[in-house]
Write a structure and sequence with these properties.
- The complex is a heterodimer.
- By secondary structure, chain A is mostly helical.
- Chain A contains 16 helices and no strands.
- Chain A has one domain.
- Chain A is globular.
- In chain A, 48% of the residues are buried.
- Chain B has a 4-stranded antiparallel beta sheet with strand order 2-3-1-4. In chain B, strands 5-6 form a two-stranded antiparallel sheet.
- Chain B has 2 domains: 207 residues, no CATH class; 135 residues, Orthogonal Bundle (Cytochrome Bc1 Complex, Chain D, domain 2).
- In chain B, a hairpin with a 2-residue loop joins strand 5 and strand 6.
- By secondary structure, chain B is α+β, with helices and mostly antiparallel strands.
- Helix content of chain B is 40%, strand content 6%.
- Chain B starts with 15 loop residues before the first strand and ends in a 15-residue tail after the last helix.
- The radius of gyration of chain B is 49 Å and the shape is rod-shaped.
- Classes of the chains: A mainly alpha, B alpha+beta.
- At the A-B interface, helix 1, helix 6, helix 7, helix 8 and helix 16 of A face helix 1, strand 2, helix 2, helix 3 and helix 4 of B.
Chain lengths: 484, 424
């Protein structure tokens, strides 16, 4: 990876001049070589093997703890009465939230013509798919009898029994199901041209056949590109309200119920901002090692990371505002149950969780006001790790504080998760990282076709000297195996 | 090597499919595309690694109709989501008689909410709209592009493999009305790109799908239809066999059965939980000993508790209860000559102790609370009735017994004057 120089500063802003989105003087050919590198090298870097081994072990733990759960029932978890929603719902909301950044980058930033998105949108979308997979596991397993989870869907049956469409829990089934499907389509459609690149560059027949199968015979025809771009634009327009709706609907699970601390109208926007916040933190968490490991520093540049940090700062501040507003309303609303719950959050038995959340989510991102912090990779990494932890604790605080101290003081019960709870959570990270590492190894991690459109060479009206010969030369297709 | 290549190494057989020209920049491609458009060709295309800005105008591509298809499907999704929710939650079996059960709606009432309310249905309507519209966008785009297609004639060209990396191509189909091999070749050669390459149809291209794979995939797909068909048939067919339950947890549940030695659920082996120390179950708080036990300060009460009011209706209630619970032994008149006693005497039951007459001196001298206590807890061989008769009803029986006793010991003066003539 030594061919990539250390960080190039493209974070400057000069009037009348655009900072380059791709550094290192790449043209189409060299960019393709670099972007295809991770999937075409014979051996991935040693760090990949280490990370993959750990992830697969965690994935096995997930499988084992779910198997143990199915055999023994939800009693193996720490849920109690009154805290009936424990880790399963916390983890579900946590993972669904992370999934929001991918679609935000691919859809909303696309509609806003934010060209910097092209370098990170593919793996952010992949991250979305894998996060939604992790999220989908938890509502599935927390129902107890997981073999009848299909009852959640409106399937004709001999009992004339249908789901209750007036319940937010059912809205959730539809919202998360639609979100997973549309995200998958969005991701896959965007990947077709890059899969075709993999197909055309592949050396052996099996590789060519498999990538060819998934590339669907893409030839880069301009007539195809025309419909492709239109379809992509429409998908972006559809996914934009969708991404805002999904976490709103997730927040309805709480807000529509009449429990102090949950029954508030601020929940939908507050959840959406939190989701984008947590999602971007995860994007940076993954981008920092991935660009290092696969030599993508010129494609995912410092400017991209700095932009992500700015979004983290913005959304983190919105989340902080929401925390404050909840407290204000609990006082201003004058409802004694509401004010009790919020006092208990900050000062009660779960105060340690609450102040962890405040430190990680509200205070830590404030460092990003300083440009030095936005461009220092270690500061960035520490802050986003804190945000990952903080966003998990946000869901913990919401779910557990309101439930464990319900209306009847005699039934109050301190919630203690069991070892199986923790193992399932750790295992879900195993699933996430296993999928992500496989994705890095076998699929186009950078949206090459899209990155090429934001390079200066792509402008058909600019005068780029034609210096290359027309020969087909097999040597040009040598992937950059050893860049040392 | 020279820049001219008319035959690709693989292009050894087959008819001519078209001509391929390579360009090295989008600028050159757009300029060439304008010339080909103006020359009047119709069946031709350009191939690029990314969507080139301005190529649509240069080629004369008309805007796609895809958005209309997306709108149509989105509309269907919207209406479909609405109808689904109305049908399943707001109609019932009686609204559309004659439908098979699995298609009937079920209009059940939840928390007193209306069966059909648009606001509650909006989230699902939104999701179904987006879902169908997204399907239309993706599958519509693929279908209009005539994809998926594993193989095209263009893949025979080695140089075309760079179309997805960094090169730009023009391809003119031989099926075009204006196509003429010699003329078109020279025209394309003068556009500033490479020399045109002839693309031939090759049956055995390395990128084509193997024939056996197609057949086996088709067989596999048709086999996959068998399990759903079996299930679908089972849903409509009638059978005397019980339903197949793969997971038997609802059929064979772990539980404590009568006569079982110990319950497996709790360490102490008991099936029901003892009452926690210091707690009182709902309705079990019985501080008022007068009402519940018939005692005041440990002594039998001689008055009725404040919860009951003695009137004719109350005594009639006592009579009715007495005739149900007490009369079988004590007799309707309370003389101890009920039907149970008569039967026991007739059968000469060994050890039979005759019920007490409520009219003897001892019974008459008992305080009210004593009688109440006897009903509640039993006395001598009489069993307790406290579990079967509520406290108020026990007091009603006490009041009726007092009335019975009075009826057997009354003077003429106690009888109202207008009824006296009826006595004899």
């Amino acid at each position: 990876m030594a061919s990539v120089p250390n960080e190039i500063d493209n974070t400057w802003n000069r009037p009348g001049e655009r900072a380059p989105l791709i550094t290192g003087g790449h043209d189409f050919t060299s960019l393709t070589d670099v972007a295809c590198g991770p999937a075409e090298t014979y051996r991935p870097p040693r760090a990949w093997y280490i990370a993959f081994t750990i992830s697969v072990v965690l994935l096995a733990i997930l499988g084992a703890s779910i198997g143990y759960l199915i055999i023994n029932g939800v009693g193996v978890w720490g849920v109690n009465n009154p805290t009936g929603w424990g880790f399963a719902i916390i983890n579900f909301v946590f993972w669904v939230g992370i999934g929001h950044a991918g679609t935000l980058i691919s859809a909303i930033l696309f509609l806003f013509r934010q060209k910097w998105r092209t370098s990170i949108n593919r793996f952010a979308e992949a991250m979305t798919i894998f996060a939604v997979m992790c999220a989908g596991i938890f509502p599935g397993i927390h129902v107890g009898r997981i073999w009848v989870t299909y009852w959640m869907g409106p399937l004709p049956n001999q009992m004339a029994m249908w789901p209750n469409f007036r319940s937010p829990l059912l809205w959730d089934v539809f919202a998360v199901g639609t979100y997973a499907t549309v995200s998958l389509l969005f991701w896959y459609v965007g990947m077709i041209p890059d899969l075709a690149t993999f197909r055309d560059r592949s050396k052996n027949k099996i590789r060519r056949f498999i990538y060819g199968l998934f590339a669907m015979g893409w030839t880069g025809s301009s007539r195809h590109w025309h419909r492709f771009e239109r379809a992509y634009l429409i998908l972006a327009a559809l996914a934009t309200p969708l991404v805002l709706s999904v976490h709103s609907v997730v927040s309805f699970d709480f807000a529509v119920s009449q429990l102090p601390g949950w029954h508030t109208t601020i929940f939908p926007p507050y959840f959406v901002a939190g989701a984008i916040f947590g999602g971007f933190a995860m994007v940076v968490t993954l981008a920092l090692p991935a660009r290092e490991m696969f030599g993508l520093k010129n494609i995912i540049t410092l400017r991209h990371l700095e932009n992500c940090c700015k979004i983290i700062l913005l959304t983190g501040t919105i989340v902080g505002y929401a925390y404050l507003m909840e407290f204000f309303i609990s006082w201003y609303g004058g409802n004694q149950y509401e004010s009790f719950i919020f006092r208990a959050r900050a000062l009660g038995p779960y105060a340690w969780a609450y102040w962890t959340m405040i430190t990680c989510n509200v205070l830590a991102p404030q460092l990003f006001w300083f440009k030095w912090c936005r461009t220092n990779l270690w500061v960035m990494f520490i802050v986003v790790m804190m945000v990952n932890v903080g966003m998990w604790f946000e869901r913990f605080v919401i779910v557990v504080t309101s439930l464990s101290q319900d209306f009847l003081p005699s039934s109050w019960h301190y919630y203690v998760p069991t070892a199986i709870d923790w193992l399932t959570l750790a295992g879900s990270f195993g699933l996430f990282f296993t999928m992500f590492l496989l994705f890095c190894r076998f699929l186009p991690m950078v949206a090459m076709a899209e990155v090429k459109t934001v390079m200066p060479h792509a402008d058909a009206h600019a005068h780029v000297p034609a210096s290359r010969s027309f020969d087909y030369n097999p040597d040009d297709f040598e992937p950059e195996q050893e860049q040392k | 090597m020279s820049g001219v290549k008319t035959d690709s190494p693989n292009a050894t057989a087959g008819r001519l499919e078209g001509l391929l020209v390579e360009f090295d920049s989008p600028t050159a491609l757009v300029a060439a595309a304008e010339q080909i458009r103006d020359a009047g060709y119709r069946r031709w295309d350009t191939h690029t690694p990314f969507p080139v800005h301005g190529i649509d105008e240069a080629m004369g591509i008309r805007p796609t109709r895809l958005p209309f298809i997306v709108f149509l499907l989105g509309f269907i999704g919207c209406i479909g989501g609405l109808v689904l929710q109305w049908w399943t939650n707001a109609t019932g079996a009686s609204d559309f008689p004659g439908l098979p059960t699995f298609l009937q709606g079920y209009n059940y009432l939840i928390s007193g909410k209306p069966e059909f309310s648009l606001p509650a249905n909006i989230p699902v309507i939104f999701e179904t709209t987006v879902l169908l519209a997204a399907f239309a966008a993706v599958f519509g785009m693929l279908a209009m592009n005539n994809l998926p297609k594993h193989h095209t004639a263009l893949f025979a060209s080695e140089r075309f493999r760079r179309v997805t990396t960094d090169r730009f191509f023009v391809y003119v189909d031989a099926a075009d009305a204006k196509f003429d091999e010699g003329q078109t070749t020279s025209f394309l050669g003068g556009l500033g790109g490479s020399q045109p390459e002839a693309i031939h149809d090759i049956a055995s291209s390395p990128s084509a799908l193997p024939g056996g794979l197609k057949v086996s995939t088709l067989i596999l797909i048709s086999l996959l239809f068998i399990p759903p068909l079996v299930i679908a048939r089972a849903r409509v067919a009638k059978s005397n066999e019980p339903r197949i339950h793969i997971i038997q947890d609802m059929d064979n549940q772990e539980r404590f059965k009568a006569q079982q030695a110990a319950s497996a659920f709790f360490a102490d082996g008991r099936a029901s939980r003892p009452q926690p120390e210091g707690t009182v179950a709902r309705g079990d708080l019985r501080f008022d000993t007068h009402y519940y036990e018939g005692k005041i300060g440990g002594e039998y009460a001689t008055t009725y508790p404040e919860q009951v009011t003695i009137n004719e209706q109350f005594i009639r209630r006592g009579q009715e209860r007495f005739n149900v619970y007490c009369a079988p032994c004590h007799g309707l008149g309370g003389a101890g000559n009920g039907t149970v006693n008569a039967t026991a005497l007739r059968l000469e039951t060994a050890g039979w102790i005759a019920p007490t007459s409520l009219h003897d001196q001892l019974a008459r001298s008992r305080p009210l609370g004593h009688i109440y206590n006897s009903i509640s807890n039993g006395i001598r061989s009489m069993p307790p009735y406290g579990d079967q008769i509520s406290p108020t009803d026990r007091w009603a029986i006490v009041s009726y017994i007092r009335a019975l006793q009075f009826s057997q010991q009354a003077d003429l003066d106690d009888v109202p004057p207008e009824v006296r003539p009826e006595l004899r």
